[in-house]
Amino acid sequence: MTDTASRRRGRRTRTESADTRDRILSVAREEFSQRGYEKTSVRGIAKAAGVDPALVHHYFGTKEQVFETAIEVAFAPALNAPEAFAEAPPDEVGERLTRFIFGIWENPTSRTPLLAIVRSAVNNEAAAAVFRRLVASQLLRRIASRLDLPDAELRAELAAAQLVGCAMLRYVIKVEPLVSADIEQIIERVAPVVQGHLTGP
Questions:
Q1: Nearest to 149 by CA among 84, 81, 201
Q2: Secondary element (H or E) of residue 77
Q3: How far is CA 15 from the centre of its chain?
Q4: In this predicted model, what pLDDT tens digit does every residue of 132-175 receive, in sequence order?
Q5: Cβ neighbours of residue 128 under 8 Å, at least 6 residues apart?
């Protein structure tokens, strides 16, 4: 059957399906960014994307699954963190990781979706569960796997807590003087603490 005949019968080609899925996902990220998890609905995503809600369910499943797919794409830059210190000398891993994470937050393009993710996770348990699952399975365990220490997972979590806490205060809660401080000054002070969590005694 030709592509033309397929379209006449109402079937989508692979390209059309991929385009539709990408459009829904793009709209979903925007909706979650602007409205947060609780105020975003599958119906609202579908309306903004110009599709039937059933099609959103078809591609992604539940609202929680839509959120997980959307934030996984937005969170992708942070997932490269383990590679940021892969070849670093042991005494430089803290500085490398700290600089990498703050570099993502300082970039307005990557900061906007991260803000939406963090706000949603703070305000909604379902969103928090998705965020925990993503961070634990795809970020912290990968960092821990690069640490040749018996308590590597705890060390990775403590380092992440240090970085996430600073990011929350600087970019989400916006506490002074942390907000106005030069990023290099912050990295200089935070990196040794992260280093201690990762490789200290």
A1: 201
A2: none
A3: 27
A4: 887 777 778 888 888 888 899 999 999 999 998 999 999 988 99
A5: 121, 122
The residue among 50, 49, 30 whose CA lies nearest residue 40 is 30
Cα angle, residue 47 at apex, residues 44 and 51 outer, rounded to 5°: 125
Instruction: Count CB-CB contacts under 10 A for residue 144.
Output: 19
Evaluated on CA atoms 27, 28, 32, 37, the torsion sign reads positive
> Look-up: residue for tokens 């060390």?
155
Tokens linked to 97: 């990781």
How far is it, in rounded angstroms, from Cα 194 to Cα 162?
7
Are 51 and 60 contacting, i.e. CB atoms less than 8 angstroms apart?
A: no
- What is d(CA 74, CA 65) in angstroms, rounded to the nearest whole number? 14
- To the question of pTM greater than 0.90 for the whole model, the response is no
The percent of residues above 90 in pLDDT, for the chain, comes to 38
CA terminus-to-terminus distance, the chain = 68
In angstroms, the CA 49 to CA 27 distance is: 6
Q: Report CA-CA distances (Å) from 183 to 105, 192, 196.
A: 10, 15, 20
Q: Quote the tokens at residue 19.
A: 């385009």
Please tell me whether residue 87 adopts helix, strand or coil conformation.
coil
Token look-up 């961070």 returns 135
Nearest in space to 113 (alpha carbons), one of 3, 34, 196: 34
The encoded tokens of residue 199 equal: 């490789």
